[in-house]
Amino acid sequence: MGRSSHSNTLTGWREWVGLPDLGVAWIKAKIDTGARTSSLHAFDIQEFQREGADWVRFRVNPWQDTAEDAVLAEYPVHDRREVRSSSGHAETRLVVKLRVRLVDREVVAEVTLTNRDEMGFRMLIGREALRRGYIVDPARSFLGGRAPKEARRRNRGRDAATGSAPQ
To answer: Where is this region: Disordered (predicted)?
Structure first.
């Protein structure tokens, strides 16, 4: 059995995670040991050159069914990977490195950028990130705590102040 240099941190099958470099305090993620690389819902993905290096500009919607609090980000392209979805569809995705706060710890994760509009979670945390000292309990959820009620309402596409659907 392999050893980790970190103490083991227990995580559930789904967690509220943070992306500190993007200013995203809360985004709901599925913890997926079947996926190698983590994945983030991104759109308006545009590659460009900066000082001779490949970069990517993209937008992130942290909430399901609403563009509220959308974030614009620019990162160096770390890699390009052929990824096969659970439905068997293969696509080449750009990979960036992002800091991810998962159960009160931060790890740097390789994250592919893709449209996850049809998926139930805006983010998926894969094995490469989990290898940094996480143990997954598939019977539990939100071991790192829940996002504040305002954030959970936004994630359901509801206005935090009124509880009504956005216009």
So the answer is: 146-167
In this structure, are residues 122 and 29 in contact, taking their beta carbons and an 8 Å threshold?
yes
pTM: 0.83
Report all structural domains of the chain as residue ranges with CATH numbers, in order of start: 9-42+77-147 (2.40.70.10)
What is the Cα Rg of the chain in Å? 16
* Residues 65, 137, 91: CA angle, nearest 5 degrees: 50
Residue 149 has which token pair? 């009620």
Helices first, then strands: H and E counts in the chain? 2, 12
Whose CA is closest to 145, among 100, 99, 103? 103
Tens of pLDDT, residue by residue over 19-41, are 999 999 999 999 999 999 999 99
CA distance 11 to 127: 13
Residue bearing tokens 């309402």: 153
